[in-house]
UniProtKB/TrEMBL annotation:
GO MF, one example: precorrin-4 C11-methyltransferase activity
InterPro entries: 4pyrrol_Mease, 4pyrrol_Methylase_sf, 4pyrrole_Mease_sub1, 4pyrrole_Mease_sub2, Cbl_synth_CobM/CibF, Siro_Cobalamin_biosynth
Assigned EC number: 2.1.1.133
NCBIfam families the UniProt entry points to: cobM_cbiF
Protein name per UniProt: Precorrin-4 C(11)-methyltransferase
Family assignment from sequence similarity: Belongs to the precorrin methyltransferase family.
Pfam families the UniProt entry points to: TP_methylase (PF00590)
Source organism (scientific name): Faecalibacterium tardum
Enzyme class: transferase
Biological process terms in GO annotation: methylation
Tetrapyrrole methylase domain segment(s): 1-207
Cited PANTHER family: COBALT-PRECORRIN-4 C(11)-METHYLTRANSFERASE, SIROHEME SYNTHASE-RELATED
Keywords annotated in UniProt: Cobalamin biosynthesis, Methyltransferase, S-adenosyl-L-methionine, Transferase
Length: 252
């Protein structure tokens, strides 16, 4: 059996209880060493085989899973954040399906949630934005033409941009080709929830310059939108005049 587990954004106590229990019981852990906090490996039982997938190919990862399965052992495949975002889990799952190896998936706290927490921010503010666009700039990994950053930016919604901090100048240009103005608030969150976390609050117009000034070159998210500004409306849900299934409104 293989358990895919989301490790969370960095702080070891942000893994789920289920994920931690799988780690404690595992005979083998294959962890994404470029981003997963190695402190989590402290949960492994004595004798647990540990592999860093940052140094491995898909074939090598699958080979370890096969060997463990054949020996009747349990493997945890530990991915950063939540495995469903940029986790390359599908190709592993398809290969396991083809070989009849059972697996399941335990969610984790994605870094886009870790970044919002670091900023004490709500991505979905009434009248400001009710949409979060999660995307990336194309780099060595292509992005479909219809998902070009500039066209997604045309919505002016809240955007969270992964894997793109090294292309910050291009990101800034693309955002300005969309609905954002140079004054639209933005932020860069480096290593959300790690002790070395850094937050840079800026505007779209100063995004590249501010990122460079902070010396941030990797492991960061770029978040953009008026949710970082001051204007918004109160929620209907907690409005005294609003009736819901659970509470009778009191019109004033
Ligand atoms: N599955 C992961 C994302 C993996 S892609 C998740 O759900 O978060 C790797 C990218 O995620 C990094 O390049 C960076 O953009 C972002 N990232 C991962 N951990 C981060 C953290 N703690 N703080 C800020 N960005 C992070």
């Amino acid at each position: 059996m293989v358990h895919f587990v989301g490790a969370g954004p960095g702080a070891p106590d942000l893994i789920t209880q289920r994920g931690a229990a799988f780690l404690q019981a595992a005979d083998c852990i294959i962890y994404a060493g470029s981003l997963v906090n190695p402190a989590l490996l402290g949960l492994a039982k004595p004798g647990c085989a540990i592999y860093n997938s940052a140094e491995m190919t898909l074939e090598q990862v699958l080979d370890v899973m096969h060997r463990m399965e054949n020996a009747g052992k349990t493997t945890v495949r530990l991915h950063t954040g939540d495995p469903c975002l940029y986790g390359a889990i599908r190709e592993q799952m398809d290969a396991l399906d083809a070989d009849g190896i059972c697996y399941d998936d335990t969610p984790g706290v994605s870094s886009f949630c870790g970044a919002a927490a670091a900023l004490n921010a709500e991505y979905t503010l009434p009248t400001v934005s009710q949409t979060v666009i999660i995307t990336r700039m194309e780099g060595r990994t292509p992005v479909p033409e219809r998902e070009r950053l500039a066209s997604l930016a045309a919505h002016g919604a809240t955007m969270v941009i992964f894997l793109s901090i090294g292309l910050i100048d291009k990101v800034q240009t693309a955002l300005l080709q969309g609905a954002y103005s140079p004054d639209t608030p933005a932020a860069v969150v480096y290593k959300a929830s790690w002790p070395e976390e850094k937050i840079v609050r800026c505007t779209v117009g100063s995004l590249a310059e501010s990122t460079r000034a902070a010396g941030i070159t990797k492991t960061a998210l770029i978040v953009v939108g008026d949710f970082l500004g001051k204007q918004y409306e109160r929620s209907k849900l907690y409005d005294p005049a609003f009736t819901t299934e659970f509470r009778k409104g009191d019109p004033v």
